[in-house]
Amino acid sequence: MDSNTLVAIVSIATAGLTTGIGCMCPALGEGRSVATALTALAQQPDASATITRTLFVGLAMIESTAIYCFVVSMIIIFANPFWNHVIAQTGAK
Amino acid sequence: MNLTSDQQIFWQHGFVKLNETIVTTWAMMIVMSLGSKLITRKLATEGTISRWQGALEIIVTGMEKQIKDVGLSQPKKYLSFLGTLFLFVATASLCTVLPGYKPPTGSLSTTAALALCVFVAVPLYGIREQGLGGYLKTYMKPTFIMLPFNIISELSRTLALAVRLFGNMMSGVMIIGILLTITPFLFPIVMTALGLLTGMVQAYIFSILAAVYIAAATRAPKLKTDLHAQPKVNHLQSSTFEAKRSPNG
Question: Which of B169, B175, B199, B216 could form a disulfide with B105 if both were Cys (CB 3.0 to 4.6 A apart)?
Fold first, then answer.
């Protein structure tokens, strides 16, 4: 197996793993936070405005970790520096 | 596949480039400022108001209320900055209903510029409210050991603001692009509708986070007075509590 194929395999597998794990863990966290917010809403419907706003801000914070993973995997697939290096080398030969 | 709209270059002269992001941003700025100028040209305070004025009033008072809810007691001071951020991001994502349009917030340069605006505005508002020394002291709270961590958090939250908005917008465009090649007819429309919702939520999140950061930078002295006031209240409460309890005991 030459290094060319190896770079391609590692890139694609890593991109899949990055998005897979990076979606799973924030999803668990978001589920927990939404469940807790629903409990709080059921107990105190008067505070719904504050709870909803805090929930949205918190969800965005958690969501952004998943977004970081997505951005990294997009870079690995579409703008991979190692793959570009390989292509430049084969082009030079 | 183009990752961002920066890669579509219309015109280039040496160092100066005119890419799609700049063009759509300027077109949006022109539409928004001309539109609001036209609407606010003849405002009415009594009698029947025009429908457009009603719409703008709903938007502006809604933003004022949200800013006030975050904890900034004088929302008028911050409305110009936070309202502009919200309207820009919201319009950028709402315009995705137009065919052939790519949101300028789907490019990292735009979102980095917006996040840098927040990064500069937070200390400015903090200094205006508390003075230079008072603002710099907030970095030393609770103790001076926290100084490097406070500075790091200032930088990392700017990065997070930029990457969050960029990732959300870019992923929306990317998913629609990929779906167009797989299931071309109906499903991309559903995802576009979902993208509109995500865009509005992201606009809300961006401006609310900026408001929270500004509130944290401007509100520090009042917290101190609250802490001083608290023991008295506690004492009162506990004494009445004891007074209530004593007959039973």
Answer: B169
